[in-house]
Design brief:
OB fold (Dihydrolipoamide Acetyltransferase, E2P), single chain, 2 domains, about 25% helix, alpha+beta, 13-stranded mixed beta sheet, Aminopeptidase, 7 helices
């Protein structure tokens, strides 16, 4: 069926139109105006509205690049439904190379926000009312924090069956369940019964080509699952995602220089040495940091200088650990073979 016009941010968009909008945001003390960039593709045929956001924490660049590459795909000419993308959700954070908004507040602690609250709360309220309210499903693109790299993994609410179906179609190597975080966008989405996925991969302030390609392909898979894009390619056997049982953070027990030979995706057994922390002045003995449980490394600190209590590794445990470890090895090999074809779609 033919699509109908929609109205967003006081602009009417007609079927077949591509539009770039700038949503006004609360001003900062310099009185300089700020705008949230929004790019919309409204298909000629009816279908769902998919919202994709990036740079929730302004220093996360992989998601912005994923969106820019997605918008250049030729397959979007035959889009069914509506694609709304926000390449930079936290413009203030991007400008300042920071994950925070004025006042040192994280945007993802302020949803749904309010008209009379803090700067962050007002911004969250504008986004919810003007943009998020249009969505039938949402994908948020994030990374690890500065100096922390994450293996490509997807999060969804375990009680949302529709989100689970979309998460499985995304086909990231690892799937995890959300933890409840007050004021987060995913909690608000669950309350409003909107399927919500969070893709987290790579490191803040760094491009990670592998993470970008996995995310781009995953979004295309979700759009095909939603019947927004045609799936005319020859079906190839794909490796299914593995869902984690628990996620464990391993922290430094002392300050010093951390030495490790481990990599993302590596399988470690209980009691294995993850890192040796050495005193940079040679005044104290070396301390071995060992794994509390058998698991797979899905996140790690890349900075050698660490403080006591600082997170070093994130371990994921799986019900079938051996199969999960073999799966990640096979997934890595297969993904490297297939990613060269993404740009040709």
């Amino acid at each position: 069926m033919k699509n109908t016009p929609i109205k967003i941010c006081h602009e009417t968009i007609y079927p077949g139109e591509h539009l770039s909008l700038a949503l006004p945001l609360p001003e900062i003390f310099s009185c300089a105006p700020m705008y949230m960039p929004i790019k919309i593709i409204h298909g000629k045929q009816q279908g769902p509205c998919l919202l994709i956001t990036a740079a929730m924490h302004g220093n996360e660049l992989n998601g912005t690049e994923i969106i820019n590459r997605l918008l250049s795909q030729k397959t979007l000419k035959n889009l069914r439904g509506t694609l709304i993308t926000v390449p930079v959700l936290n413009v203030y954070g991007l400008i300042n190379r920071s994950r925070y908004l004025p006042g040192g507040i994280e945007l993802n602690r302020c949803f749904p926000g309010s008209k009379t609250g803090t700067h962050a709360s007002r911004m969250a309220n504008i986004f919810i009312n003007e943009v998020f309210s249009m969505a039938d499903a949402c994908i948020d693109l994030q990374t690890g924090s500065i100096n922390h790299t994450n293996l490509p993994q997807l999060y969804f609410h375990e009680l949302d069956d529709r989100a689970k179906t979309l998460a499985e179609s995304f086909n990231a190597p690892v799937i995890s369940h959300f933890t409840e975080e007050e004021g987060s966008l995913h909690c608000y989405a669950f309350e409003k019964k909107i399927p919500f996925l969070k893709y987290e991969a790579g490191e803040a302030m760094r491009f990670d080509e592998h993470a970008i390609r996995v995310g781009l392909k995953g979004i295309q898979n979700v759009m095909k699952k939603l019947d927004m894009l045609s799936d005319r390619q020859k079906k190839e056997p794909s490796l299914k995602s593995f869902t984690t049982e628990t996620n464990i953070w391993v922290c430094a027990e002392t300050s010093g220089i951390s030495h490790t030979i481990h990599q993302l995706g590596q399988h470690v057994k209980k009691g294995d040495t993850l890192s040796i922390i050495k005193d940079p002045f040679g005044a104290a003995e070396n301390l071995a940091i060992k794994t509390p449980e058998e698991g797979i490394i899905v996140g790690m600190n890349n900075l050698p200088l660490v403080h006591e209590g600082e997170a070093l590794f994130q371990l994921a445990t799986f019900p079938k650990m051996k199969q999960a470890a073999e799966h990640l090895e096979a997934w890595e090999e297969k993904s490297n073979e297939n990613f060269d074809n993404i740009q040709a779609e």
